[in-house]
Write a structure and sequence with these properties.
Radius of gyration: 17 Å
Number of strands: 12
Largest sheet: 4 strands, antiparallel
Structural class: alpha+beta
Strand content: 25-35%
Number of helices: 2
Helix content: 10-25%
Shape: globular
Distance between the termini: 22 Å
Order of helices and strands: EEEHEEEEHEEEEE
């Protein structure tokens, strides 16, 4: 998912999904079905007691599109437009390097088995004036949305997971391994805003 912030700078989130345990269809029809579900993480219909993320953002925070890459080495990317804006009054943005982080949890420990999604920052009006953190209701509502999406994807033959691409470093030395995908079991979502070091301006 791509979008822009108040200064017109781009933000992007990456999500890994697998069709049919890796052997299912990844044609346009399958991607379109996935898109109708996946977009709900950022904008659109809430799952039961959940709500999408952009309702917590300033109207200056926008989505543009989702680009789907089928990881077979040959497929052409599929781009589906999603033009939406945050629901809170414009001008209530936090600093551009701020993000709220959804952590993806699997049943296996270790960095290769968890992931993070750095969401565009919530509007300042949703942050406590005394503690500087999101209210509990906002945290719970978005966690419920993520859990709702996780539970819903198998209904169309997809799973949401953490991908390990098979390369990294250990003590400064390059390491390689066979790439793999691990199903997500749950999420955590910190009320305290975060900054990814390389995002700092």
């Amino acid at each position: 998912m791509r979008g822009t912030n108040v200064a017109g700078q781009q933000w992007a989130n990456v999500v890994h999904c697998r069709s049919g345990d890796g052997a299912g269809p990844t044609d346009l029809a399958a991607i379109t079905a996935l898109d109708a579900k996946l977009v709900r993480l950022w904008t659109g219909t809430g799952y039961t007691s959940g709500s999408s993320w952009l309702i917590n953002c300033s109207a200056d925070t926008k989505t543009l599109d989702i680009t789907y890459y089928v990881l077979n080495g040959t497929a052409v990317p599929i781009v589906i437009a999603h033009n939406a804006s945050g629901s809170v009054a414009a001008g209530s943005n936090q600093a551009q390097e701020i993000a709220h982080v959804l952590t993806l949890r699997t049943n296996t420990r270790g960095r290769r088995y968890r992931g993070r999604i750095y969401l565009p920052a919530a509007a300042t009006t949703l942050m406590s004036n005394t503690t500087g953190v999101l209210g509990g209701a906002t945290v719970t509502s978005f966690l419920n949305q993520a859990r709702g999406l996780l539970a819903d994807l198998p209904s169309i033959g997809w799973k949401w997971g953490v991908a390990s691409y098979g390369h990294g470093t250990l003590n400064g030395q390059p390491q390689t391994w066979t790439p793999f995908f691990t199903d997500i079991q749950d999420f955590t979502f910190d009320a305290i805003p975060d900054v990814q070091r390389r995002r700092k301006q």
